[in-house]
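Page 42, continued from yesterday. The earlier attempt failed because a stray header line got pasted into the input along with the sequence. Redoing it now with the clean sequence only.
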Amino acid sequence: MTSNEKDYMDRYIYQVIRRLPKTQRDEVRMELEELISDMYADKGSMDALLTELGDPAEFAKQYQNGQKYLIGPEYFETYLWFVKVVLICAAVPILAISLINAIGEMPAITSQNAAPVIIRAIVDGLITGITDALLSCISAFGAVTLTFAIMERKKFQFEMKKAEKWSVENLSAETKTSTSRWTPKFLERVPDKKAMISRGDSIVGIVFIVIFSVLLIFAPHFFAAVFMDGETVTTVPIFNLDQWRIILPVFVLSLLIGLVDEILRLVVGIYCKLVMISNIICGTIQILLSIVVLKVLPIWNPNFVLELELALGDNANSGAKFLTYWNADIVSNGLLAFIVIITLLEIGMTIYKTLRYGIPKK
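This time it went through. Structure tokens are written below.
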């Protein structure tokens, strides 16, 4: 067996076992290596052997017992991990927000009523938080499940379209009839380890997107300047809460687009053309939506400086007084520049890793 034939065998086995649960992969790998080696000794041609075995996507079904999946083994472990992260990030902040709001709304506490008042505030906060968290988790679970289910249904169609891609070989009369069926020439190389996208690369982005979305939806008033005068707490919101119903959908849409990109990266698992195109498109849309949010919509509290001065009064220290020099245009431009730079750096890194380590196309 030549090194080129060994490479084709490794590609074929990889394309089969990646569609199976991890618990089966080592066993199936050894089984296929033995099967293909035995068949190769009889046939003497790796190309003819793999053509006889057929499309690895179809061959893998022999190990799936003909079962039909809403989300198949290829995606299921990634799906479970993703659901856990999203549900935790959606539930925990909502519970915390509800408890903080409940404690902040407590009536005056005296030595006689301290325990009942605190306990009642905690119970009310937990009841509200659990209700909101359940609704949020159900929505998040449904959205993630639907996304993975769509990918499960569409993946074989995508692979077939990729296999039938036109090439110069179609001009040959001998090959024109054979390009409509699977052959070993359609096998992609086993990806370089540096081309793999680890879960750790995405977890920070996923956690940030989910938690930030929860805060924007359930507690936009948390984004505020906070001042304490004895037992009195004064907050001055940064955002324009009067226009929040107009601003929030655009804000959340931008974050959801980033979440979709992260889901795709997790599902595909390697830097490739699909991941690169998705990252470029999603990044471009996010930049455009950031321009809309920061430069078109009235995102900032128009009375921020006035409310700050009233909250600070005459006893403001120099550090707090600095906030009164707030300039909405400068803040918008600075944030926009930061978003554009970070997004372009991410796109550039994705393009570099795809071109440098990604699976080469024939």
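Notes: The longest helix spans residues 114-163.
Reminder to self: strip header lines before submitting.
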